[in-house]
Design goal:
Layout (H helix, E strand, L loop, with lengths): L2 H9 E7 L15 E2 L2 E2 H12 L4 E5 L3 H7 L6 E4 L7 H11 L7 E6 L7 H9 L7 E6 L2 E9 L3 H7 L7 H6 L5 E4 L20
Parallel strand pairs: 1-4, 1-6, 4-5, 7-9
Antiparallel strand pairs: 2-3, 6-8, 7-8
Length: 203
Amino acid sequence: MTHTEDRAADQVTGLLLAAGGGRRLGGRPKALLEHRGRPLVEHAVEVLRAAGCARVHVVLGAAADTVRERARLEGCVIVPNPAWEQGMGTSLRAGLGSLAGTGARAALVALVDQPGIGPQAVARVLAAYEDDSSLVCAAYDGVRGHPVLFGAGHWADIAATATGDRGARAYLKEHEEAITLVECGDVARPFDIDTPQDLAHLE
C-alpha cells in the first residue's frame, strides 16, 4: 500500500446508502435482495472494504431490523434513517451526519442497488481523494455516475440541498467544474436494481 492509499484509507469513510424499500420491486427492501448467495447489503459492504475503505457506515431504513438479523455487518457503523420513505436525500443527510466527529475527511458514497460496480471502480474513485475539498465521481463513457466522493468541506452544503430522491444531484450540477471524473466504464457496469426486470442482473 502506498502512502497515498494509506492516507485515503485513514481519512475516507465508505458510506453505503441501503435504506430503500424497493417500491417498484413490490416492496422488497433492496438491502435484502440476494446476490451470489447473500444479501445485497453484505456484498456492497465487502466491495467498499475490498476497495480500501477501512471504515464503513451503512444507512438502513426499510426493514432495518430484518436487515440487521440477516446480513453480516460486523464492524460497520449502522445509521438508522427513520425518514427513508421520503427518498435517498434523507439517507445521504443521515449518513453524512453520522460522520461528524469521527475524524473522516471525506465520504465515499455507494448505492446498495448497483452490484455491477465492484472494488476496481471504487478503488479508482478512492485514489483520486486529495483533501477536504475533493469532489470525485465515477464516470461511465464520460457520463457521471456512482460511486461519488465528497470531501468534508462539501458536506454541510450537500446536506442542505439533498431532498427527495435527488440526493446530491443538484449540488453536483452546480459544482460541475470542481468535479474530478474518474472513468470506470472499462471495469464496471452502473445499472440499478429498480424494477422486476432488473432482478435478472443478480447472480
